[in-house]
Amino acid sequence: MKDRSPLSRQIAFSAPVLVLFVVCLFLFGGKPPSSDDNPKPGDSTDLVSVSKEGAKLTNIEVITVASKTLEQDVRVTGQILYPPDTTVKISPRLQGRVKQVLVRVGDSVGEGQTLAILDSVDAATARTTASQNENLLRLADLNLQKAQRQFDLGTPEVTAAQAALDQAKTAKIWAKDAFDKITLQAKIGGFTEKPIEDAENALVAAKSTFSQAESDLTLAQKDLGRKKQLFEIGVASKSDLEISQDTFEKAEASEEAAKETVRLADQAVVREQKAFKSHLYADQQVNQSRATYEQADLQEKAAERALLITKAAIRTALEQAKSDFRMAKFTAENSGRQMSLLGQPNADGTFEIKSPISGVVTERFVGPGQVVDQSQMTPWQMFTIANADKVWVEASIYEQDLSVVSDGDEVKIEVGGVPNKIFRGRILHIAPAIDKTSRALHVRAEIDNKGRQLKDGMYADVTILLPKGRPEIAIPLSAVVHDQDYDAVYIAESGDYKKRVIHIGGQRDGQVFITSGLTVGEKIVSHGAIFVGHDTSGD
Question: Sorting pLDDT into bands at 50, 70 and 90, what band is 423?
Fold first, then answer.
């Protein structure tokens, strides 16, 4: 094991040394060295002379500077810890009574293995709710499929509305065609004098009828006169007279009616002539045809609106079905996630507490019959499972080791509980700052523990295996003197000594590495250097 004290604390004065120091003040000769406010490695002061008696009295020893490779392994004491990221504390998911506990502390368990069985009313309620939500989801899915088919294929109402629209479009096409033709006919004067001709023909027929009626009346009148004469002379009977009288009256009425017909027919001729001259019939036909077309256009638009309203109804039904399905799916998925978090409780309300990882039961806080409730923290946790296939060992190193220890360095440990066995691993983490109290730096290594022989809390002897470096200049720690803010050695030259500033790179087992200020082959004071340079006899 190496010395753990900082370099600045290596110089300590005991009572005998103080006595020797006072003696040396009278034995040494020479001048005190000059000082430099900011000396650099390699800087030297004036020579210091030491008498043979003084050198012998202070036991000054001189060695030749050489290079060597020192053992660099770092040995410290550490503690075994189970990694927090491989340790799981299992808490109750809901209120329930412990029905059965299947593991004990120290048992090895696999991932998914049942640790305990709980009986819970809340679990039964959750299972029932999940089943109801699944049924609602299936129903919503069926409704969505039905609404989609209706939207794709249409409904009887949509079919009827589409047929009405097709009929309205056809009627509009025919009405438009008729309107265009009549309008064109009116523009080119296509309407003839036929109505006038018809009225004149009717007048001629009426006059002919009137002439016939007049002729019939004349004959009836003559026949009545003759029958009267014959009746008077007794040749004709009274009944014959009455028949002739009746025939006369009818003829007279027919003649009046025919006369009136002639008058009306004559007025009709005049009226038709006036209508033809004023284009009355052409305007009437055009207006009537336009009205028919406009009515057909309105009927088509109404049929289009009716079809859109009917389709909008089934589209609204489809969107509502989609919304219902999404909501039912979301609710069912939430229930599924809740069931998964609860450990998939059975229909009878029991559910299994399972281990999420493989490991060892390190703590158990429940027993059969105990009521657990996470909300009330009775208890807060049921089990602690730790995966001990790999463990951590935490140790502390000191400032002089900082330059040689790094992430990934190999580590071997030995523990008293497992004698004659070495466990190996590598450094995972080095703390970014030194502990202000202990002046130590915490390091953490990961160790394979397949046999799970290393237990949480064990103390371990830790060896950090460092790579062997190239030979460097190394001198005894006793050769170094500390003067204010720099380190120095005394160079031996023919019985005299010269103080030279050096730079120290590291320290191992009572030896220090020199990075600048010395070369191989030079001679330095290795023992008694603290007495050199304090003589005042030369003043």
Answer: very high
Q: Two tokens at 70? A: 């020192």
Quick one: tokens of 157?
A: 């109402």
Instruction: Check if the beta carbon of residue 217 is closer than 8 Å to that of residue 324.
Output: no
Q: Are 275 and 193 within 8 A, CB to CB?
A: no
Q: Which helix (H) or strand (E) holds 196?
A: helix 194-232
Q: How far apart are CA 405 and CA 206, in angstroms?
A: 141
Please write the tens of the pLDDT for every residue from 449-496. 888 888 888 999 999 887 665 677 888 888 898 877 788 899 988 778
Residue 537's pLDDT band (cuts 50, 70, 90): very low
Distance of alpha carbon 303 from alpha carbon 5, whole angstroms? 103
- Of 539, 527, 532, 498, the C-alpha closest to 28 is 532
| Alpha carbons 268 and 383: distance in angstroms, whole number | 118
Classify strands 87-90 and 486-493 as parallel, antiparallel or unpaired. Answer: unpaired
Cβ pair 355, 113 in contact under 8 A: yes
**Strand order across the 114-119 sheet:** 350-354, 114-119, 96-101, 371-372
Q: Which helix (H) or strand (E) holds 428?
A: strand 418-430
Identity of the highest mean pLDDT range in 55-59, 196-200, 201-205, 265-269: 201-205
Please give the Cα distance from 211 to 419 (Å, whole number): 158
CA distances, 340 to each of 120, 352, 359, 529 (Å): 15, 11, 22, 76
CB 11 within 8 A of CB 479: no
**Which amino acid appears at position 530 of this protein?**
I
Give the Cα separation of 395 and 448 in Å (integer).
17
Tokens representing 463 are: 């060896």
3-state secondary structure of 273: helix
Which tokens in the block code for residue 325? 């399905």
Provide the greatest CA pair distance for the chain: 220
Tokens of 201: 């023909």
Q: What is the DSSP string of 40-63?
A: -TT-EEEEEE--HHHHHHTT-EEE
Confidence tier at 20 by pLDDT (50, 70, 90): very low
Residues with Cβ within 8 Å of 253's Cβ and at least 6 positions away in sequence, in order, are none
- The DSSP string of 86-99 is GEEEE--SS-EEEE
- Give the model's pLDDT for residue 72: 65
Determine the residue type at 13: F
pLDDT, position 45: 61
Task: Tell the burial category of 539 from Cβ atoms under 10 Å away from its Cβ (0-12, 13-18, 19+).
Answer: exposed
* Interval 34-70: pLDDT, tens: 444 556 665 666 677 666 666 666 678 889 998 876 5
Residue 92: which residues within 8 A CB-CB, separation 6 or more?
118, 353, 372, 373, 374, 382
Query: Would you give the DSSP letter of residue 389?
Result: T
What are the phi and psi torsion angles at 515 (to 5°)? -90, -20
Q: Mean pLDDT over residues 374-399, rounded?
A: 81
